[in-house]
Amino acid sequence: MSQDRVTLYHSPNTRSSSALLLLEELGAPYDLHVLDMKAGENRAPAYLAVNPMGKVPAIRHGDALVTEQAAVFLYLADLFPQAGLAPAIDDPLRGPYLRWMVYYGSAFEPAVVDKARGGEPAPQAMSPYGSYEAVMDLVNAQLRRGPYLLGERFTAADVLWGAALAWTTMFKLVPETPEITAYVGRHMQRPAVARVREKDAALQAGQAA
């Protein structure tokens, strides 16, 4: 196995689809370990040894095992610097890049899930995100600067957020503001997005057969 070859633990049309998209955008060499989540393969002992949460994505690279979506993205984008999708440590954009990578999982996703469930958010002092409205205001304000999260530069953060906003607007979990609609439109036009959709459709058809 090549030192740089990555194994992605993947289930089609799930959170791991965005990790697959990142691998495609990076032009990285990878293998897929496909899990049928409807059949419960993600809860089997073999996969729980990889990620005890039974969640995807996870990646294996040599002796390194990485779980958690933001960690997977940060690891992969730094592993393949030639793709230019991660600002270097001495780049002024590195801080904002890390901020938006982490903000997705620490604030945006919890806010969207709480909103979708219709429950009362936690008190401000206990909430990891404050309020759903504050989260959406911040996201829209950042996208207004466009065309990407960091301005003119497309990064791995846009792979993560483009996929997330495409999914959440499709299911009406996030308002289709002009900023988000335009951003998702740019995301959907990327050739890698079409390739991943085709791969996932084929994988899902194979699982249903």
Automatic annotation (TrEMBL):
Entries under SUPFAM superfamilies matching the protein: GST C-terminal domain-like, Thioredoxin-like
Residues in GST N-terminal domain copies: 3-84
InterPro entries: Glutathione-S-Trfase_C_sf, Glutathione_S-Trfase, Glutathione_S-Trfase_N, GST_C, Thioredoxin-like_sf
Domain of life: Bacteria
Family of the protein in this entry: Belongs to the GST superfamily.
Name recorded for this polypeptide: Glutathione S-transferase GstA
